[in-house]
Specification:
The complex is a heterodimer of chains A (about 450) and B (about 425). Chain A is an alpha/beta fold and about 450 residues long. Chain A has helices at about 10-15, 25-35, 45, 55-65, 65-75, 80-85, 95, 110-125, 145-155, 175, 185-195, 215-220, 250-260, 280-290, 310-320, 385-390, 415-420, 425-445; strands at about 140, 160-165, 200-205, 225-230, 230-235, 250, 270-275, 295-300, 325, 330-335, 340-350, 360-370, 375, 380, 395, 400, 410-415. In chain A, a hairpin with a 2-residue loop joins strand 15 (about 395) and strand 16 (about 400). Chain B has helices at about 30-35, 80-95, 110-120, 145-150, 150-165, 180-190, 235-245, 265-270, 280-285, 290-305, 350-355, 385-390, 410-415; strands at about 5-10, 10-15, 15-20, 40-50, 60-65, 65-75, 100-105, 130, 170-175, 195-200, 200-205, 225-230, 255-260, 275-280, 335-340, 360-365, 370-375, 395-400. In chain B, helix 3 crosses helix 5 (about 150-165) and helix 8 (about 265-270) crosses helix 10. Chain B is globular, with a radius of gyration of 24 Å. Classes of the chains: A alpha/beta (about 450), B alpha/beta (about 425). Chains A and B meet through helix 2 and helix 3 of A and helix 11 of B.
Chain lengths: ~450, ~425
């Protein structure tokens, strides 16, 4: 048993990490599906999209060969509509609400059609948006993730000059660094960022970190307003013995490494346990398997009913051959020579506590999984210190805002994961739009 | 099993499905394949003076991903040598004596030409003749086809010439490119035609290519009006058929119905409105002769379900139910009812009623699913919501009579009853 890298050939890596949701091969194939759309009024799919994309409209536009109009419809609600078409858990959003589900028929493949309509726009850099003449107003945005980019784009359209400060060397945030590689490629993430910034008026300063390279007061002095969209990032600790052993990693760092260093460079064990059952846990487990781990086991303290990931995600893990141990709480990681050798879990049973949901109770019964790698995916923590040190009003490190991202500091706005604690890309995009709206109102009032 | 055989003026066929005069019936190899597949009869592609065709010849209207909702052509009558056609017709009659062989004709516009052509055709043993008074392109410029059918006097004259020599049943095919098919139909019947067939194709432009700016079909950068057919023309054909079925003069002769017939259901509808046989072209051009199986099968099963033993049991049955508007019962009133268990909340009924009809559906907001209910007092019973609803039997139209007695518009006016106040 050993944790090492370079387990596969180049061909195997390519095969394992190829696009899990391939696009429509032809226009005809897209049209067959697009023509199935009923063109619902006040459509449930649109209502279930956090950014409110007018889905029936963009699909109708595909059927009339108005692909530019279709791309515009998508991007005007969600500037990351291209990436969201690949990473959104659509089965619980638009596609989950498609009325065909109520007819026991296959839902319209909205994500795939959205990809069809947006991919060309990004590849060919269609100039769908025009920036208004510069107003001379300057805004700083912290973080070039979905929230920051969305806010920046919305502001730039209104003639605001935006500078984004990004601590990493690439844009896209968790889209680039935190999502399974078989959903979005690094190249796509780069193309998407380039497409968004092609409107002009958006300058991204890479490798510049708030609290390290500059402070919030610095920005408040130089800019008319500041938008905080620095996300979450710290992996939640398990607080069990053995967490410091060699071979214990957190899922965020593991995925970051895959996305940043390339597949062959990433070390993975023979027998891997992944703790957690959220989207990130699935992304870590499936990618560990795809990197060449012989056995990957997901360990979750509750049942399938409570799991945070969607059924579609669970199925990806199962199809990849990952094992699942339900109702098991990790209590200790054991090691040999400083390296992980076993994961000890206490079994959990559910007891009726009078309420609707049965309460999990940890029993004395233990199971021991022989493992050489443990990936922790028990959730992410806000950047507490950063938030505390700037005296931003917060809830356990999550910045608290009134509507549309207004924080406790005048002229400072916030949105996305650093406010909500970690949601989908599409939620962050909407937060960015809301923030931009609030900033524009703030600038308007200032002027009067 | 019902008997679906047809007897059209003594021309017998094992089923009422004939292939219309068109490319599928222009040569022996096609016609034998059609007979082998089970078609009841054919109308051989129009014979007449020698012509030359162009390329391309067809174009179509596609709608929401469905191809060939409508179809048009600029092909002329048969461009093969007459003698070859005649020889092949005789062979087909010999090989399949139980199938109807009708030959479509369009001679030059003089008595001698018609007489000569008819004699040659009757020598083949064909069972009947169909006079092509309907071709809307190419031949009209020479005073033939629709040019004849559009003028009752000319039509009558040609029919008289034909009746002077014809010894087999004569069917006159009518053009729809007129405000009413009845005048020419009457003229033909008065001149002695044994039967009528309709409709021929409708003059049309199916569309314009948005890259080349040339309408379809493109013949080297130009186009010309073509004859429109296919499923899209069925409603127009049914209306014209009904006017022929209801006119006291034209109703005296049997009718062969044509116009967008693709399924047994279409055929049954044509027959209910007075057609004794039906002719099919576009559907066979699109899918091949194999569609005959379901045409026969479906008609047969439907007849069994309805208790019809022969096609005569239902031919013309729906004709009396089509009446003038002023005869309709104003007291008959229906109201839409939405079955909430079946509703999928697509909102199509709501938006069509709200924007397109009488604002009679209520939207109660829900996320993501709204609830839609009918405002009974506002509903005029127009059917629009039921038509657009994608779920079968989700919306039903329930009868709520305004009064017990039958009350038509004439009587309504005579009594001076009140009109709407909104």
């Amino acid at each position: 048993m050993a944790v090492h890298n370079n387990r596969l050939t180049a061909e195997e890596y390519e095969q394992h990490f190829s696009d899990i949701h391939p696009p429509f091969e032809t226009r005809d194939a897209a049209l067959v599906e697009a023509n199935r759309c009923l063109f619902c009024y006040d459509a449930p799919c649109t209502k279930s999209c956090p950014t409110g994309i007018n889905v029936p409209k963009f699909i109708k536009q595909i059927t009339t060969d108005n692909l530019k109009g279709s791309a515009y419809t998508i991007f005007s609600s969600n500037i990351m509509g291209g990436g969201c078409a690949k990473v959104c858990p659509v089965e619980k959003l638009c596609e989950g609400a498609c009325v065909y589900n109520l007819m026991e028929e296959e839902a319209i493949p909205i994500a795939r059609l959205q990809r069809y309509a947006t991919e060309k726009a990004i590849q060919e850099k269609w100039p769908l948006f025009e920036r208004k003449p510069s107003t001379g107003k300057k805004i700083a945005v912290i973080g070039a993730g979905p929230g920051g980019l969305s806010c920046a784009h919305a502001l730039s359209r209104e003639g605001i000059d935006v500078t984004i400060y990004e601590k990493e060397s690439k844009g896209g945030g968790l889209m680039t660094y935190g999502i399974a590689a078989y959903k979005v490629t690094p190249q796509f993430c780069q193309d998407e960022v380039d497409y968004i910034t092609s409107i002009g008026g958006i300058d991204i300063q890479y490798n510049k970190e708030l609290g390290k390279d500059f402070t919030l007061p610095d920005l408040q002095q130089q800019y008319d307003a500041v938008y905080l969209a620095f996300g979450v990032g710290l992996a939640r600790q398990l607080f069990i013995p053995g967490e410091q052993l060699d071979g214990v990693v957190d899922a965020i760092s593991f995925i970051y490494e895959i996305r940043n260093n390339g597949f062959p460079a990433v070390r993975v064990g023979d027998q891997v346990a992944v703790i957690g059952m959220g989207m990130t846990a699935i992304d870590a487990a499936t990618q560990a398997k795809r990197l060449g781990a012989k056995e990957v086991t997901l360990v979750y303290r509750r049942t399938q009913q409570e799991m945070p990931c969607t059924e579609a995600e669970l199925n990806i893990a199962l199809l990849d051959g990952c094992k699942i141990v339900w109702l098991a709480a990790p209590t200790e990681i054991l090691g040999e020579d400083g390296k992980v050798s076993q994961l000890v879990c206490n079994l959990v049973k559910l007891e009726d506590a009078g309420g609707a949901r049965r309460q999990p109770v940890i029993t004395d019964e233990q199971i021991i999984l022989p493992v050489d790698m443990v990936i922790k995916a028990a959730g992410q923590m806000p950047f507490e210190q950063l938030v505390y040190s700037h005296q931003l009003s917060n809830d356990h490190g999550k910045i608290t805002t009134t509507c549309n991202g207004v924080t406790s500091i005048a002229g400072v706005f916030a949105g996305g994961d650093c406010v909500n604690g970690g949601k989908e890309v599409v939620d962050a995009v909407q937060a960015g739009k809301d923030g931009a709206k609030a900033i524009l109102e703030y600038l308007q009032n200032e002027r009067c | 099993m019902a008997d679906i055989s047809a007897n059209f003026l003594g021309i017998r066929s094992p089923n009422p499905f004939w292939l219309a005069s068109a490319p599928p019936t222009d040569k022996k190899v096609n016609v034998l394949r059609a007979f082998e597949a089970g078609w009841g009869g054919v109308v051989w592609k129009t014979l007449g003076s020698q012509v030359k065709n162009v390329s391309s010849r067809y174009s179509s209207v596609n709608y929401n991903g469905s191809r060939v909702m409508g179809f048009n052509n600029i092909e002329l009558i048969s461009d093969r040598p007459l003698d070859l056609n005649l020889k092949e017709i005789a062979e087909c009659v010999r090989l399949f004596p139980d199938r109807a062989m009708v030959v479509s004709l369009m001679a030059d516009n003089n008595r001698e030409s018609w007489h000569e052509l008819i004699k040659k055709v009757e020598d083949t043993g064909a069972h009947g003749l169909e006079l092509n008074f309907g071709c809307p392109h190419g031949m009209t410029e020479r005073g033939m086809g629709a040019a004849v059918g559009q003028d009752p006097e000319i039509a009558a004259r040609v029919v008289e010439w034909v009746m002077g020599v014809a010894t087999t049943p004569v069917i006159t095919k009518l053009t729809p490119n007129v405000h009413s098919v009845v005048p020419t139909g009457r003229a033909a019947v008065n001149a002695g035609t044994h039967a009528l067939s309709l409709i021929n194709t409708i003059q049309s432009v199916t569309g314009v290519d948005l890259d080349t700016f040339v309408p379809n079909p493109n013949v080297g950068g130009q186009s010309t009006f073509g004859g429109y057919c296919g499923p899209a023309v069925k409603p127009i054909a049914l209306k014209m058929l009904t006017t022929i079925s209801q006119d006291p003069v034209t109703a005296k002769v049997p009718i062969s119905g044509i116009g967008g017939i693709s399924t047994w259901k279409d055929a049954a509808e044509f027959m209910l409105l007075g057609a004794t046989t039906v002719q099919v072209c576009t559907a066979a051009m699109r899918y091949g002769f194999r569609i005959i199986d379901d045409l026969c099968d479906g008609l047969n099963n439907w007849m069994d379900e309805k208790g019809f033993k022969t096609i005569d049991d239902f031919i013309g049955r729906s004709v009396p139910t089509l009446t003038n508007w002023e005869e309709l019962d104003i007291n008959y009133h229906i109201i839409a009812k939405i079955n909430q268990d079946k509703c999928i909340h697509c909102g199509l009924c709501y938006i069509s009623c709200e924007d397109g009809s009488h604002q009679a559906i209520n939207l109660s907001y829900g996320k993501p699913y709204n609830t839609y209910t009918v405002k009974d007092d506002e509903c005029v019973g127009c059917n629009l919501c039921q038509i657009v609803c994608p779920v079968d039997n989700c919306i039903t139209m329930v009868e709520h009579r305004r009064g017990d007695e039958y009350l038509n518009w004439k009587e309504f006016q005579r009594r001076g009853l009140p009109l709407n106040d909104h």
